[in-house]
Amino acid sequence: MTLKEAILARHSVRCYRKKPLAVGIVKVLEEKIAELNRVGNLHIQLITNEPRAFSGMMARYGRFRGVNDYIVIAGKKSDDLDERAGYFGEQLVLYAQTLGLNTCWVGLNYSKIAGTYVLAEDEKIVCYIAIGYGVTQGGAHKTKSVSEVSNVSSETPAWFREGVEAALLAPTAINQQKFSFTYEGLRDGVYKVQAKRGHSLIGYTHIDLGIAKFHFEVGAGRQNFEWL
To answer: What is the pTM of this model?
Structure first.
């Protein structure tokens, strides 16, 4: 499965089967996490066989069932931590999809269980990601149109539209899709694209923007462009 195929196949899943992650799956996930931590300057951690984080009232309120494995997204406190968490965390989500796993980004509906993760004094947890074998593969949600979140037109290149279409398939907090992409044209031999987050009373827009930006890059085929 390619990353583009993973974007199409991935849906948020909240209910999981009682099937532990295989040793080989854990190994490759931890290798990918080590890579993303290094490149993204994060402290992502995989927690396995630990049901307590998703067994409390908050998890039940969020309709989570059977979550025994999850990913802690953490890093050093900084202004761009949330966006990096989204950008690199979604790389792990899509990688997990290629391995036949299901996932769900979780902002609130979990409990922090002491001793299950490690944090330095200058680090904080951004969010969790539930991971495992879903009872179902989840389902698609209604999305905004390309024109609602971008300046796509007959004058913009095809790869820009494809990037926006992929971004619209990105998971966002309660499907709010508070982001936009603007094609700024060719400057000094490099295409420029601007990505912005919108205002939301719910929050999580920095994380959502990071997720959407990675989806855009996959959809656009990593064309010769730079983010403004």
So the answer is: 0.96
Name the token pair of 41. 């300057």
| Within a domain: 164 | yes
| H/E run at residue 208 | helix 205-220
DSSP 54: G
Task: Provide the pLDDT for residue 10.
Answer: 98
Which residues of the chain are under the pLDDT cut of 70? none
Cα(69)–Cα(66) distance, integer angstroms:
9
Residue 103 contacts by C-beta under 8 Å, 6 or more apart in sequence?
10, 12, 13, 93, 96, 97, 129, 130, 131
Exposed (0-12), middle (13-18) or buried (19+): which is 146, by Cβ within 10 Å? middle
121 and 202 belong to one structural domain: no
Query: The tokens of 223 are what?
Result: 């064309």
